[in-house]
Amino acid sequence: MRIAGIASQGVIAERLKAMRTVEDFFVSPILQETALNVVTSTGWERHLRAMRVELRTRQAALRGGIAAMECTKSTPLGGPLHLWLRLPPHLDAITVRDAALRQGVSIIAGNQWHPSDPQSTHIRLSNASAPTTQILEGVKRLASALDALR
């Protein structure tokens, strides 16, 4: 379609342009109806309540694990899906991210969110998709990575 749009002229070009506009700016009626059915179903509110409880539980586990770490005394900020943790002054986020990856833990270096801060002193930790046991194991591994960088 894109090649046809580039190569076309006149009436055909106008038709293709109109089709692309519809495709690019409007959600299909089938997807709209499906979304409406989901958010108006009787189970939607129950699902949201269950998700809130689960995310609070996961976040509490992450906060508890961080509080138990000896290598940092920073209070994490954020929620309910992610926490930002200030690193000790002698560490930068890229070094910590790489050390965490070697321990099998994926974190986000703060400078990926703030490119003007190339030596970011923050990392972002997520509790959005992992179960509590995995979060706690991840925090232990992160602590090990941080201890190795002392």
Explain the overall architecture.
- By secondary structure, the protein is an alpha+beta fold.
- The chain has 2 domains: about 1-40, no CATH class; about 45-150, Alpha-Beta Complex (Aspartate Aminotransferase, domain 1), CATH 3.90.1150.10.
- It is about 55% helix and about 10% strand.
- It is built from 6 helices and 4 strands, in the order ααααββαββα.
- The chain has helices spanning about 1-5, 10-25, 30-40, 45-70, 95-100, 130-150; strands at about 75-80, 80-85, 110, 120-125.
- A 4-stranded antiparallel β-sheet has the order 1-2-4-3, with helices on one face.
- α4 runs parallel beside α6 (about 130-150) and α5 (about 95-100) crosses α6 (about 130-150).
- It is flat.
- About 20% of the residues are buried.
- The model has no long low-confidence stretch (mean pLDDT about 85).
Tags for this model:
150 residues; alpha+beta; four-stranded antiparallel beta sheet
Write the layout of secondary structure elements.
Layout (H helix, E strand, L loop, with lengths): L1 H6 L2 H16 L3 H11 L4 H25 L8 E2 L3 E5 L6 H10 L5 E2 L12 E5 L5 H17 L2
Brief overview:
The protein is α+β, with helices and mostly antiparallel strands. It has helices spanning 2-7, 10-25, 29-39, 44-68, 93-102, 132-148; strands spanning 77-78, 82-86, 108-109, 122-126. A hairpin with a 3-residue loop joins β1 (77-78) and β2 (82-86).
Helix content: 55-70%
Beta-strand proportion: 5-15%
Architecture of the largest domain, CATH level 2? Alpha-Beta Complex
H and E string: HHHHEEHEEH
Strand adjacency order, main sheet: 1-2-4-3
Task: Please identify which CATH superfamily of the largest domain we are dealing with.
Answer: Aspartate Aminotransferase, domain 1
- Can you tell me the number of structural domains? 2
CATH topology of the largest domain: Aspartate Aminotransferase, domain 1
Shape: flat
> How many angstroms separate the termini?
56 Å
Most strands sheet? 4 strands, antiparallel
* Mean pLDDT level: 86
Low-confidence stretches: none
Which CATH class of the largest domain? Alpha Beta
